[in-house]
Amino acid sequence: xxxxxxPKPDQLIKIRYAPPETAWMNTPVDFRPxxxxxxxxxxxxxxxxxPNPRAWQPADExxxxxxxxxxxxxxxxxxxxxxxxxxxxxxxxxxxxGACADKCHFYxxxxxxxxMPVLRAELLRSVYRRYFTTSGKVFGKLAGARDLTVDVLKExxxxxxxxxxxxxxxxxxxxxxxxxxxxxxxxxLLNLVGCNINWVIExxxxxxxxxxxxxxxxxxxxxxxxxxxxxIEDRTGIRVNVPINKKGADILFVTPSGDYFADPxxxxxxxxxxLFHEIGLNYTFSTYASEGGNFGLFTSAEMVKxxxxxxxxxxxxxxxxxxxxxxxxxxxxVIHQYMxxxxxxxxxxxxxxxxxxxxxxxxxxxxxxxxxxxxxxDLIRNGKLKLDPQRNDHIRLTFHDSCNPAxxxxxxxxxxxxxxxxCNHFFEMAEDTIREKTLCCGAGAGLGNDENMEMRMRxxxxxxxxxxxxxxxxxxxxxxxxxxxxxxxxxxxxxxxVPGVTVMGVHELLANALVMTGEKERTTDLRGDxx
Amino acid sequence: MKNISISLxxxxxxxxxxxxxxxxxxxxxxxxxxxYVAIAVFLIGFVFRILLWAKSPVPFRIxxxxxxxxxxxxxxxxxxxxxxxxxxVIARMAQEIFLFRSLFRNTDVAIVDGRPVYGSAKxxxxxxxxxxxxxxxxxxxxxxxxxxxxxxxxxALSALDGFFEIGIPTxxxxxxxxxxxxxxxxxxxxxxxxxxYISLFTDYFSLLLIAxxxxxxxxxxxxxxxxxxxxxxxxxxxxxxxPVVPQGINPVFYIHLCFVFVLLAWFPASKLMHxxxxxxxxxxxxxxxxxxxxxxxPWNAPVKVHTYEEYEDEFRDKMKASGLPVEKE
Lengths: 531, 329
Prior knowledge:
The complex is a heterodimer of chains A (531) and B (329).
Chain A: H1 9-12, H2 42-47, H3 69-83, H4 85-92, H5 105-110, H6 117-132, H7 134-139, H8 150-160, H9 168-172, H10 179-192, H11 198-210, H12 218-236, E1 251-254, H13 258-261, H14 265-279, E2 283-284, H15 301-318, E3 322-325, H16 330-343, E4 369-371, H17 372-381, E5 397-399, H18 403-407, H19 413-422, H20 453-474, E6 478-481, H21 484-497, E7 502-505, H22 506-513
Parallel strand pairs in A: 1-2, 1-3, 3-4, 5-6, 6-7
Helix pairs in contact in A: 3-4, 3-10, 6-10, 8-10, 12-14, 14-22, 15-16, 17-19, 19-22, 20-21
Chain B: H1 2-23, H2 27-55, H3 86-99, H4 101-104, E1 107-112, E2 115-120, H5 123-141, H6 152-161, H7 173-191, H8 193-198, H9 201-222, H10 228-239, H11 251-266, H12 274-277, H13 308-321
Antiparallel strand pairs in B: 1-2
Helix pairs in contact in B: 1-2, 1-9, 1-11, 2-11, 5-7, 7-9, 9-11
């Protein structure tokens, strides 16, 4: 990861919160390198049947929009106002109290007032007022309304791709206005005229075709998992099974492809393999449904459904009883809040019951998909795992609550329970920065690309600084999380702001501590570091 | 600054309106016609806006969870901040509406020694709560003009509100509180650069209009009393649909009336509708139970998917070469 093109941390931290002299409607957007993402490539749009595939870049003067682009956007807006109460309501009820303003990590990190959630929403509201409210039609600017111009569209693009849909603002809003909803609508509208980013659209196209974001083909998945099994054998002396596309398994296991693609996610994936082997779980991976994540969430509700459909379809084909899901953030937003509604009912599956403990996961009785930390916490609670937390004594851990499991699921205690049982040195970050107030990694929702590096480091700064505090106070050297995007993006973030801190999934921590039947004496952790 | 000036001018024009009308001999407009128009616009507009929101469905169950959700039985969940059912949602909404729970979380941020520091910022919550509660009490107290005999609870409320018996006539605590609340909210909007930057005309106008109502009310109670019997006769006239044109009431009273009616008529078209909207917010009024109970999206439609068959057709040879099972040889 190269930070050569962006300012050094001591420069970047000099943030001015004073707004500019010019009113926001008269302040044009500046596509400064390092703060935006490349456009979606035509081949990916074509593969997904998305409109207006073409060669263009956001910094271009001419975005090659269709002639009737305004009508397309306004019709799209009308349709969405009628389909989503959240959208219509959030366009109307904001009182601009500003409570959300300094809750956004992008505002805290950039000082750009259009990164205040309230103003990011006003970018869209101003157009809504102009075309959909009487006061806006009559009084125009006085009523906070403005025409939909190309400059407005460019502003939407810039700022709706500077929001990670983390929902932190909605925790503080007295009306629960959720910028994620507004960003989602904004991005859907931009997609109608072919304005999207490649770091979202390429994974979506890959996922549609190959089953996962990274475009890994069936043989590749098998090789990667086998390679991990080799590593596990090397560390523990035990050869774990890697069941793939196995009919008759009890459980389908779905995890984000980031977990089997690159470090440090692979160590988390090794953790799953070791755990499932040790408890003798009759499960299977799938190559067709080889992605838990869902970049449709950063495109449109329709795309969420198109990509998510594979999970139930594959569970049905393989004849499993229920589904278990790995550590991932936005994946769990989709599974917890969208999957059953979109692609259910999953009446061909059974209510999830742990085959090891007999625990009935009543909280998942309709969707029939259980979070891996729920599953593992239940195993530990019932004494089914032999754990030696001393093997993690070289790790001084803090834990980052990933945005979506925190604010769209309320999953706080399960990972902490696992951590407490597997690690002797655990230190929480400041209260304002964890649990429902957790700060984003700054690169979710499709923004974790290299060209957007400055904005990522700005957006991730509040999280990084909270880590820095526990590093100084408690010598923390490891940042735990339950999200594949975190494992990739927090790694860069730490390298930039808090060098020396590395990132891990909770199941890597678990696997280090897991005493496996018949294992050889462990001298290293999963990474090969001495313990 | 332009938005502030225009709002101020608009409110001043409204203040001059009653005097203007009475010079033209049209004060009956304010006492006999405007009340009905304003109330009608308010009621119809309010209901219309609520119905418009309600007409759009809630396709997905999207509560913002601010506490541990209900999962394993031995994990303590937070039934209010992450409600799993009906009662939890009611408790959460009650907290939000009566106590401004979310605003209570408010913090501010400053970069100190090269890092962001979060400080407590409860003033917005406190003054917001002060303003809204006193407004409610003041409205309820005014019911004394519309019922005869005055219901005992209205008298009790007024007595409680004037409990400290400061001055003659007694200063109502709610009057003092609303002044503090309004002043804070207005000054914050004008003084804090970030809040001024996001403020629209409507934000200033709403505050100034309410400030106009409050100040004319206080003026009449403490400095330039209006003939309360005449006011009551007139109010009862409205209620019984036999409006009378009162004689000799303090001119300030007409300004007060004018502000109130404009406020009522303006309400449904403005951001003040947050009063109704807050009840419909899907991030607050839904239970966090979407894996437990299926939520139905009324417009859920089939989409184009990539089926397993299509997938296997493309990758069959590679799957076989890797020893992965296939459906068709």
